[in-house]
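Same chain as my last thread, 267 residues:
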Amino acid sequence: MPTRQRAFRVEAVIIRHQEWGEADRLIVLFSRERGKLRAIAKGSRKSRSRKAGHLEPFNRVQLLLAQGRDLPLITQAETIGTSISFQDDLLLMGYAAYVLELLDRFTIEEEPNPSLYQLLVETFERLRQNQDPLFELRYFEVKLLDEVGFRPELFHCVVCNEGIQPQDQFFSCELGGVVCPNCAIHPRSLLPITLSALRYLRHLQRSPYTEARRAKIPLPVEKEMEAIMQRYLQAILERALNTPKFIRSISASGESQDKLSLNFPRD
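reply #2:
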C-alpha cells in the first residue's frame, strides 16, 4: 500500500467550519487536487491567529497541509479569492451558500474532480458579477448533476425510450427524466413540465457556458425550472436542502444585513 504524502499543497474553496476542541476549527473544503477534505486549523479560534481570516466560507485559498494521525493539519493558508462582495449582499451570499451546500451534499471525501472545482470557481466569479444569478444557479445545478452522475434524461421518455415530441411533458424525479404523455397515464408521481422549460433545460445541459448564456429565459419559465430542479435534487438526496429556505427568508423580508442572522441552517 502506498504511503500517504506527509505534506501537500492544494488550491481550495472553503465550504464551512466548526469548533474543534478548545481553540481549533474543523475546516471542510473542496480542493482542485484532492476533492473534498476535512482538515484541522490549530489555534484558529484564538484572536491572534493568522490563519483564521483566510479560512472563512466562500474564500478561495492556497493551503499547505501536513498529514496528521487522523486528519490533515493546515499549516499555511493564503487567500487568492475573497468573499467581500458576498458579504456585502445577503441575497448573493445566500446564492453562494446554496452552491456550496449542493457541492457538499453531492460529493464524498478525497474524490478528485478538477472540472467540478473549476465549475465552482467560475460560478462564484459569475455570481460576483451578479448579472443574472438565477441563471447561474440553474447552470450550476445542471452541470453539477452531469459531474456527479445524476444527469436527467431530457430527450427520451424514461419509460418507453421514445424521442420526446414538441409538446408539454411530465418529469419523474424517481425515474430521473422526462415521461411522455402516453406513458403518464400509468400511476406514478409526476411533475408537469412545459415545452419551454424543457427546451431551456436541454439547452443548459448540452451547451458550454458562452453558448448557454445567450439564452434569454422568461422569468415564469425560470421559476418553473427552479421548482423542477429543486424537487429532483431533493429526491436524489432524499432530504430537503437548507439554503433555499434561507434565500426565501431574505427575499421576503428585504431587511438589511444587520437584521438577519448569517448562520445558515444546518443539520
